[in-house]
Design brief:
The protein is mainly alpha-helical and 497 residues long. The protein folds into three domains: 188 residues, Growth Hormone, Chain: A; 57 residues; 247 residues, MFS general substrate transporter like domains (Growth Hormone, Chain: A, Up-down Bundle). The chain is 76% helix and 0% strand. Helix 1 runs antiparallel to helix 8 and helix 12 packs antiparallel against helix 13.
């Protein structure tokens, strides 16, 4: 029980941090004097760090053992959370968030290994189910807790709240978790491959996030980053195929099910984290919602995901074709996203709750079958490395999705501003129904500018929702092309998904 509480406290703290910050982003934007593109790096840097460091987890366990690695991860996560909470510039915040993601990347896989080793075989299913429920508390409690903390205290408490969780976890881990996992002859780390991956992914993320601000390839900086990203990623692929023990074993992608399943989970990450960025910005900046209300209306998506993950596990255990379950999830998630294409500046809370619930149900029905399909034909020896690729693609999809969504909102808001702004004159017939030309005063121009800003942003937000919708549609051919897998039901699908 003590080991379970220690691991649960660590993992809940880690998972909570991926969602608790979302509703506070508009407040952080003002407090850190940042624009929409810049503030999105608070989420992107965290996920990018997890993408880069997660493949090192197994190698680090071999060198330091599960206990020491978990203690170091939790202690570092608590420290960087406290430092992120006291940040006063966007650069400080991004640096501490990157370190927070890097130090916390090992928590979930190592925590899972500790729990599996702590329970007898006949009770490991219960342990994984308990841990899976704990992980799903993040998407449900994160927006709600973040909203209350932001409104009643400050956005900084979204980070400070990790400190009590972390101290409890550290005490329990130190006293009750035994040492395990350290190897007598640990494998060498392919540092060249690791550095190539880190530089390539980092530069790619920078191009996606900064391209809109710097006018894309007309900027020398963007051109340089693109060349460095391409060269680094090519070197990473070459190293992964050339060395015996690469950081990420890309040879496994010859397995069609794993390759297509990993692409599907990347689109899943885009849909999940893209919405997490769009909704708080839309609700607080343009609908006038408080952070608490934003968290409450966003929570049903997490609730729907938790319910559907449980149902998906039951359906798969009864022999239902995982492709059919995944297609049901895509239909639900796609329909929930399609409803968002009708949003305007006058919708009520129900228009946020019900599409969010449908989208959450869809995400849960997608993630479990995708994992099952991707791993159905892998041997036990390849499962661990396959899991690294699968989770790398999920986090990378989320990271890229955040960058794409913020770019679309920024780009198309400007386009809409120029298109609609050209029609605002004292003689425009449509405008005359709102402000007749003979009633224009000194306050009319600021009023119209504010009105134009809200409607232009609404256009940009709708275009971002279109991107999320097509993300669901793009999953359909991937699922159909995978083929009909044999489902053995032996994988810990709740945890890995």
């Amino acid at each position: 029980m003590a080991i379970t509480l220690a691991v649960m406290a660590s993992i809940i703290m880690n998972v909570l941090d991926t969602t608790i910050v979302n509703v506070a982003l508009p407040h952080m934007q003002g407090g850190l004097r940042a624009n929409v593109d810049q503030v999105s790096w608070i989420l992107t840097s965290y996920m990018l760090a997890m993408v880069v460091v997660t493949p090192l987890t197994g190698l680090l366990v071999e060198r330091f053992g599960q206990r020491h690695l978990m203690l170091a991860s939790v202690a570092g996560f608590v420290f960087t959370s406290a430092m992120a909470g006291q940040s006063h510039t966007i650069v400080e915040m991004v640096v501490w968030r990157f370190l927070q993601g890097a130090l916390g990347a090992a928590m979930v896989p190592v925590g899972q290994s500790i729990l599996i080793a702590s329970y007898p075989p006949e009770r490991r299913g219960m342990a994984m189910a308990t841990l899976g429920m704990g992980i799903m508390l993040g998407p449900i409690l994160g927006p709600i807790l973040g909203g209350y903390l932001t409104d009643d205290a400050s956005w900084r408490w979204c980070f400070y709240v990790n400190i009590p969780f972390g101290l409890i976890a550290l005490l329990l881990l130190f006293r009750h978790v035994p040492e395990a996992g350290r190897g007598r002859h640990p494998r060498p780390i392919d540092w060249q491959g690791f550095l190539a991956m880190a530089v390539g992914l980092g530069c790619t993320q920078a191009v996606l996030s900064l391209g809109d601000q710097d006018d894309w390839f007309s900027s020398q900086t963007i051109m340089t980053l693109t060349v460095v990203a391409g060269a680094s990623l090519l070197l990473f692929v070459w190293r992964s195929l050339a060395v015996d023990r690469p950081i990420v074993n890309l040879r496994l992608l010859k397995n069609r099910a794993l390759a297509l399943g990993s692409l599907g989970i990347a689109l899943f990450g885009l849909a999940l984290y893209g919405v997490m960025v769009i909704l708080p910005f839309f609700l607080q900046e343009h609908m006038g919602y408080e952070a608490q209300t934003t968290g409450l209306v966003m929570a049903p998506q997490g609730l729907g995901a938790m319910v559907s993950m449980g149902l998906a596990g039951r359906l798969l255990s009864r022999g239902i074709n995982p492709r059919a379950v995944a297609l049901i999830g895509i239909a639900l998630g796609g329909f929930g996203s399609y409803l968002t294409l009708s949003y305007n500046l006058h919708i009520g809370p129900a228009w946020i709750v019900w599409p969010g619930l449908l989208r959450g149900l869809g995400l849960g029905f997608i993630s479990i079958p995708l994992f099952t399909i991707a791993f159905a034909s892998l041997t036990k020896a390849d499962t661990a490395e396959g899991s690294g690729i699968f989770n790398l693609m999920r986090n990378l999809g989320g990271s890229v999705g955040i960058a794409l969504v913020t770019t679309v909102i920024s780009e198309y808001t400007q386009v809409a501003w120029n298109q609609m702004g050209g029609h605002i004159t004292p003689y425009a017939q449509a405008l005359a129904t709102i402000v007749p030309a003979h009633t224009w005063t000194a306050t009319t121009a600021p009023f119209l500018a504010e009105l134009l800003a809200h409607h232009a942003a609404m256009r940009g937000i709708l275009d971002a929702f279109v991107l999320v919708f097509w993300g669901f549609v793009a999953m359909i051919p991937l699922v159909l092309l995978i083929g009909n897998p044999k489902t053995g039901g032996t994988q810990p699908v709740v945890m890995e998904s």
